Amino acid sequence: MLVPRGTPCPPEVLELWVPGGGYSIGWELVTQQPIRRWSPEAKAKARRRNLRRRLEKKVPLFADMFEEAELTRRPSYFAGGEEQPRSL
Questions:
Q1: What is the residue-wise DSSP string for 11-33?
Q2: Whole-structure pTM value
Q3: Which pLDDT tens digit goes with each residue over 59-81?
Q4: Can you tell which superkingdom this protein's organism belongs to (predicted)?
Q5: Nearest CA to 67 among 80, 56, 76, 77?
Q6: Could you tell me if 78 and 48 are in contact, meaning their C-beta atoms sit under 8 angstroms apart?
Q7: Which of 23, 31, 49, 69 is the most exposed place for a label (fewest CB within 10 A)?
Q8: Domain boundaries, the chain
Q9: DSSP type of residue 58
Q10: pLDDT tens across 11-59, in order?
């Protein structure tokens, strides 16, 4: 049974409750917060940071060159745009 916040427990629920009777009175949050989406600027910053981290780990000597090539190849993605589906 859903009861709005701040209202007392309904009598029909209280009538069923006895200690050890198998019923309990509790609460659960039934509303959900709206999903917070990242701004395009935040996505772009995270994508560039992750790219740089991966390149520094795999090819530290050539990280600058590969990073520049990848930024040139997919400029909209690294500017915070949506990912384009990759063809197989």
A1: HHHHHH--TTSS----------P
A2: 0.58
A3: 999 999 999 999 999 999 999 88
A4: Bacteria
A5: 56
A6: yes
A7: 31
A8: 39-82
A9: H
A10: 887 787 777 777 666 777 777 778 889 999 999 999 999 999 999 999 9
